Amino acid sequence: MKPAKFFLVCALAATSLSVQAQETTTLIYGGEIYSADPNNPHPQAIAIEGDKIIAVGNYQDVLKQAGRNAVHLDLKGNYLLPGLIDSHAHVAYAGFQTVTLAFPDGLKDAAEIRQFVHANQHNSQRDLNGVQFYSNLNLDYWNNIQLLSSVFNSPDYKDIPVVLAGSDAHTGWANQAMLRKANLTDEMLAKADPGIKAGTGLTPQGKINGFVAEGAWDYVLSAIPPVDDTKIAQGIVAGAKVMNGFGITAWMDPISNVRPLAPVFNAHPGRNDEGLLPAYTTLAKAGKLNAHVTGLALVNIHSTPAAIDDVVALRDKFSHTPDVRLGGIKIFQDGVIEYPAQTAKLSESYLNRPGYSGDNSLDKAQYCQLIAKADAAHLIAHFHAIGDRAVSEALDGIACARKQNGDSGVMHSITHLEVVSPQSLPRFQQLNVAASMQLLWAGKDAASTTLIDGKVPAPLLKHLYPAGDLYRHHALIAGASDWPVSSPNPLEAIYTAVTRMGELGELPPSSEKMHRVAMLQAYTLNAAKVIGRDKEIGSIAPGKSADFVLFDRNLEQVSIEKLRDAKVVWTMFEGKQVYSAH
Question: Domains (ranges, CATH) in the chain?
Fold first, then answer.
């Protein structure tokens, strides 16, 4: 149920009551409350007026401030938190995937793939502007590219372009018809730039096998016509509905100036590349977004500082709607560590590729000035960094900005952080850099074992996703999902952060496990700081937005297994209910 102008009040009376939010004061009480405010962590009651919190604290004191005419909302013993926040989620892209056809996991032979294809031959979600497009492909398929080729390069597909998109958003596969459509041929590859060459998979005979990563993936995507604003808006609405269902009422969208399925890795977007921003803004103005969104503009790591002028122009154009603002820049410091892409920047060579440790072409002097100019413009700098050398480079860029500008007051952030050197750990606190971590990945699974074992030097694998080390070095840890790369459910991520358990067991070492209360803080006030909105959201405190999520059990006290299975009862955004389990 999503009333646009009215606030649904669930009271003890048999009949529920709807009144205009701006004319109503509501007293919230009768449950267990976690405020994320360290000065008042477990208040007894809250009063809200319209879309803002006006009082928090002792029941009698809040009752007095709410007034005798306040509507009473009894939590009935359930557990209330501030609206949860995801500090790195591609919500528009994830929502867009709901209107595409996902390729199922675990198809073992050609017959099973053909059966799936036949069952979906009339599925309109499969066809994307003349291309058969399958999304969310499990990375295990990259170990058997010949299986894909045996189906999609058969005579039946001679003139039918097919694209399969990897679940990591960095890789894909294209059949021969699609490679011709994109002009990614053996002849073209001989003259292509290094980014395309490095990302193109080859057979033992040196011929293109259809696997593409990053720059080459961009090249294939550029042959698919752009997704229009209407479909982007549909994706955002679908994605926001999922987020609200998990109690999430705010997020940082890390690539907001690029449309779904547009090139990103070798792209140099300018001020005329508006990407998702028009759709986000239109929805927010119409009251159809149900979230606070901080967007980031993708900036190429090799850009000159002049690129920041384009971002500032976009910020000036798209930061006039309270719930949507362009808050900073996103930089791909490296790629992914898994085989066969292996584009993460490491401090040591990949074992199966002697002498290669990821791209090493960064102009550090120019890069320093790029980050410094962003910092001086009060833009958040948010870095994708998987490998330890990428993390170090990002920290070096921020150090340069701090030296040049002094303390700008802007908290910058690094996301993913699969491998972090011991030398980098204390620099997070020293430089006021947050760790935006997808700790759902910190369990033992194929990505953390078979796709890297024997390919990445063993010393670099000893402390994957070192949340515990970062926490002990006083880094601010913020929760993130990277949805649609993985589930946006914060409880699954919290469970994995606390246990390090994945589908293949526990990922060592146990010293990297997090405490659950630290993870609750990671998805509330800490994440609000990362997205630059901690004065507005992230904790239950007077003056902040009336954003709440009610769970059916106390997440601080139940067993970790029961925490993972907790259910959202309802979610409120700006004083109105935007999700209800009933």
Answer: 6-82+543-580 (2.30.40.10), 92-221 (3.10.310.70)
